[in-house]
Amino acid sequence: MDPAMIEFQSVTKQYEGGNPAVDSLTMSIDKGSITVFVGPSGCGKTTSLRMINRMVEPTSGVITVDGRDVTTVAAAELRRSMGYVMQSSGLMPHRSVLDNIATVPRLNGVSKAEARRRATELLDVVGLASSLGKRYPSQLSGGQQQRVGVARALAADPPILLMDEPFSAVDPVVRDELQQELLRLQQDLAKTIVFVTHDIDEATILGDKVAVFAVGGKLAQYSTPEEILRAPANDFVASFVGRDRGFRHLGFTTSDAVTIHRVPTLIVRGGQFDGDPAAVTDWQLVVDEGMRPLGWARPGTNTDLIPGGSLFHPGESLRRALDSALSSPSGQGVAVDGEGRVLGAIRAQEVLEVIEAARQVRQAAL
Ligand SMILES: Nc1ncnc2c1ncn2[C@@H]1O[C@H](COP(=O)(O)OP(=O)(O)OP(=O)(O)O)[C@@H](O)[C@H]1O
User: Going by CA atoms, what residue is nearest to atom 12 of ligand 1?
Assistant: First the structure.
């Protein structure tokens, strides 16, 4: 286990005239991990996050970062040493995207040219075209703005990233993309990330560990997402985790036992089908010349391309496998390799059989 990066020791925060927003919080956050604070509105998640970089000062208790009591570090210095991403990207409207990303390196004394060069690299890291660097924030979509927010937080290469509901203002599709992107980035960067959300689904997708807060600023459970879904510590956690928890648990079950079958394909070359789609008697996967999926052709019909469902990458969870199969018009999920080339198809019925087998193994173990 990695050593603790951030520790809360009996930390309480009481705003003037109110009940405790955070009540005797004791927890330690592992280095290089994603820890998610989740809970209903007003339960102290943001307050807890902001006490890490001293945007909020605790009423009592101690917070250490890398073994140092945060109160011994000047607040401005501490804030600059941690990336911070919030819900509204918080970008400065009158500065270009590149200059927004370069803000903290510039404050740290990095030359303008060097800071911009690094900012351009970071656009690529967060999946944005470098041509967007010259734009102003209002000329970007919500999802793009959040990506810029992440790039800006990464600009000074801080070991810690604090993220306060960074993806909650974007639509579900973009949100899913941003979550996957964050997980991909984290594989390379291995930052210590503290992430606030009120969405248990997001928490279980992203968190190595999840801290469930209850109203009154009390920590109700702190564990792996799998454990929280499988064994909620009390009624509050069980009701917060909700009725879909059996389904969410599939997100932690391996899909290795799901067979990938050969799938009939129709190749499109130069805008033309290679073969006669009307002559086929089974669903055909339409692919480009590089064997990347384009959609499905229904048996016995002409060339209408029916959009496919979500793609499945071997090694992903049963939840992803099931989604891929169920979201596909043919009932077959398309499995692709790292370059997006078709490996074959997985069948909904077989994924369900694997789910049932895994359920029986779990039941037998109880
Ligand atoms: N600056 C403040 N002054 C007074 N009370 C505050 C202040 N900030 C937060 N609170 C109160 O502290 C409690 C915890 O707020 P906090 O924002 O930390 O919760 P949260 O779990 O992040 O909520 P949300 O999901 O709605 O953002 C709430 O009751 C809130 O009203």
Answer: 21
